[in-house]
Amino acid sequence: MWILPISMALPINWPILHMFPSFVANLHNMPAYFTLVLTGSSHDFRAHGPPGTGMRFFVTCNPANIQHIFTTNYPNFPKGAEFAAIFDIMGGSLFTIDGEPAHRMRAKVKGVLNGPRLLDNLASYCVDKVKNSLLPLFAHMVSIETPLDMQEMMLRFMFDLCATSLFGVDPGLLSSDLPPMDVAVALDTVMEVGFFRHVMPTSCWKLMRRLNIGPERKLSTSHTVLRRFVVEMMDRWKTNTCHTGNDHSGVDIMPPFLNDPDYADDELVLAMIISYFLAARDTITATLTWVFYNLSQKPNVVSTIRNELSPIASSKAASSASAMVIFEPEETKSLVYLRAVLYETLRLYPPGPIECKTVATDDIMPSGHKVRSGDTIFISVHSMGRMEDLWGNDCLNYNPERWLSDNGNLRYVPSHKFLVFNSGPKICPGKEIAVMQMKTVIASTMWNFDVELMKGQSIQPKPSCILKIKNGLILKLKKRQM
């Protein structure tokens, strides 16, 4: 857990510039900055930029306000046109649209993701990737006694998994030679520059885009890389279909959309693919990285995970004494403590630390604050998990047991208090798929390996819309002695 610098303070309302200097000064650690400010302002505060910039913010981590925004009066809080402009490469996808078009697309996505054959294949892809790529690579790193960047390994793993589920084609980023990750880096750039656009006046970043300078130049290059990748993958997908005579029905995610005339536009296909990588690759990569960060420092939690896995592993060990144990999704589905480990990580380190909404018409929040049409609302999901009155005086401690009820079941927490899977009508349609994939990785890794955090690292967040670690997470793995 990173420590807030003492120099951080509540934002000063300067003449003319208002609170804009405070925002800029803390761009490097905005989630922690919001947490500090929201703790000192009873969960809500206003912020304004210089006159003429249109920067009017309402920042909150108040569960009552969040329920109002996401459920009670959700039509009044769309993502808005500015959000769509910020993430222009995903324009038209579920990530950027609102209203009835979003409702129709969400129904389509939910129908595709809930298909039983697709779910079976996604589970199969995940197990195969863990068994034949991830764990062998870990074993290789152990054999040469070389530390690894777990964030990079998870990024490579999830990129391959996403590409396979989309196109039926494995890019092979987890092969032993660890090939370049140009496309993965381009995806990271989209979220990093998206963060920059959020906190800069619109006129400022649009001018930089027009002049092709600064972060906008880097983003333009990344857009080119992503477009080239999508075209290449689609060509390979079509070639495989043509040569094998297989329409891939039920095997990967793209056919139900490509066979639907409503999704015939190439730009929309590109936007949907990038959005899928964001929803699947980025969020799971970030979460798994923070899981391993915490487990590397919590041997008692690791022991409890292994105790829960032990009955499953015992039945497998008899048939394969020397091989590593791989845990199937059906075997880990009912494991409560493993899910508690995930949820506790998501509470403290949500992959999307800040949600953004726009106010459509003037409204009064349950907290009593008035918001005006055109205001931007920042919901600090990161801060919500660190509020003492919501989670107790140990809210900053990593403690999976807080998710367990007295009878050993998972404790219910309403989504407007635990927002990582969204809330209300916009609840994440791929929640259980994500949980399945993460459980498979965590269980299989922690049963077969011991994980040690290398000393001397500075664990700081990367300035991005996704809560990744700035310089990666360097761990040393050891083959576990059974």
UniProtKB/TrEMBL annotation:
Top-rank taxon: Eukaryota
Cofactor(s) recorded in Swiss-Prot or TrEMBL: heme
Keywords for the protein's UniProt record, in alphabetical order: Heme, Iron, Membrane, Metal-binding, Monooxygenase, Oxidoreductase, Transmembrane, Transmembrane helix
Residues binding heme: C428
GO MF entry, a single one: oxidoreductase activity, acting on paired donors, with incorporation or reduction of molecular oxygen
Example of a GO biological process term: lipid metabolic process
Keyword Oxidoreductase attached: yes
InterPro entries on file: Cyt_P450, Cyt_P450_CS, Cyt_P450_E_grp-I, Cyt_P450_sf
Pfam families the record matches: p450
PROSITE patterns from the UniProt entry: CYTOCHROME_P450
Keyword DNA-binding included in the entry's annotation: no
Family membership: Belongs to the cytochrome P450 family.
UniProt protein name: Cytochrome P450 86A2
Organism: Aegilops tauschii (Tausch's goatgrass)
Taxonomic lineage from the root: Eukaryota, Viridiplantae, Streptophyta, Embryophyta, Tracheophyta
